[in-house]
Design a protein that fits this description.
174 residues, Immunoglobulin-like, 5-stranded mixed beta sheet, 17% helix, globular
């Protein structure tokens, strides 16, 4: 690869990491309870539910895993971590075909970290984002997908915390 192309690639990676770090810093600030009045927004049911949907896949194939939200009173920022078995699944990428429009993802040691920071509150229930994995050849049975949400990891435009319950999922391999 030519030196010019390497320099462009390194610069693009640096910019991408800077965006992820800036969004994470905003959410960490909020997750430490440093919002304006330490206010909490309660959905009608009391708690929004963010869920990893159960899916089926074949060994050696790609699987699309939806992450959904219900009872959403409106969020602007969100920090989620999805744990998976890296002996069974290989992270590929995310698809922002859902409610997330400005989401960054990173993968390290079987944990996909999703940081979403929107321009305003996103309301309604539905799919937030799709996470794509490749099921490794020879894999069989099931593989757990665990969702971790910091108790203050979801907020709205007014920096009020939105309480959320995490619902884990499973990839069933045929």
């Amino acid at each position: 690869m030519k030196k010019k192309n390497v320099a462009i690639l390194v610069a693009a990676i640096a910019v991408g990491l800077a965006v992820i770090l800036a969004a994470a810093a905003v959410l960490v600030h909020i997750s430490k309870g440093k919002n304006k009045n330490n206010d909490v927004v309660k959905p009608a049911s009391g708690t929004a539910v963010i869920a990893i949907e159960n899916v089926e896949a074949e060994a050696g194939k790609t699987v699309r895993v939806p992450i959904t939200i219900t009872d959403n009173p409106g969020f602007m920022g969100m920090l989620l971590q999805l744990q998976y078995d890296s002996d069974v699944l290989e992270y590929i990428n995310i698809e922002q075909n859902g409610l997330f429009t400005d989401c960054d993802a990173s993968d390290a040691n079987g944990v996909v970290t999703l940081v979403d920071l929107e321009n305003g509150d996103i309301t309604g229930s539905g799919t937030l984002v799709y996470v794509n994995f490749k099921v490794k050849k020879g894999a069989s049975g099931t593989s757990d997908l665990t969702l971790n949400i910091d108790e203050n990891g979801v907020c709205n435009y007014e920096e009020k915390v939105i309480p959320c319950k995490a619902q884990n999922g499973v990839v069933t391999i045929s």
